[in-house]
Amino acid sequence: MLLSGVMPYTFRPAVESDIQAITDIYNASVVVGGATADLTPRTLDQRRAWVESHKPPYGVFVAESEGGQVIGFGSLSVFYDRAGYDGVTDLAYYIAPAWQGRGAGTFMLDNLLREARARHMRKACGIIFADNAGSIALMRRFGFTQFGLMPAAATDSTGTMRDMSYWYLDL
């Protein structure tokens, strides 16, 4: 269902050698604000532990440019740690600043949804700052439904209090 045609990117599971790039991309989002409720950058060891915590059917994946540079990463994570929620994944993705607006987010979301279906997930959920126009547009573009809005729910690294929007897609 790739919506924007053929992209010059590749998608694959993250490996140990990707953790520095994953950390750098994530920390760029932390510093700028507006995409994560982490208030301070994460260390390499913290990101490594996060990647390693994703046991099948969950996982962390990267998108690479034609030249092999990691330009983004995404994850299929546990939505809620009760067995009755098995098959529901919390989906998230981050794109390196230089690659934003170049189709990498669309590519990443499309491939994360393919992975979720291949791993027999039944629902994908996204929790997004309500003013993150780019991610909200992607949720809508891929057919996600907004199922909630929590006003003034989280602060980002800039000290801005933000509303959280909650999205789901039946897979």
Automatic annotation (TrEMBL):
Classification via Gene3D superfamilies: 3.40.630.30
Domain N-acetyltransferase, residue spans: 9-171
The keyword Acyltransferase is annotated on this UniProt entry: yes
SUPFAM superfamilies: Acyl-CoA N-acyltransferases (Nat)
UniProt-recorded Gene Ontology molecular function terms: acyltransferase activity, transferring groups other than amino-acyl groups
Pfam families, alphabetized: Acetyltransf_1 (PF00583)
Keywords, sorted A to Z: Acyltransferase, Transferase
PANTHER family in the cross-refs: N-ACETYLTRANSFERASE, UPF0039 PROTEIN C11D3.02C
Protein name (Swiss-Prot/TrEMBL): Acetyltransferase, GNAT family
Species classification: Bacteria, Bacillati, Actinomycetota, Actinomycetes, Bifidobacteriales
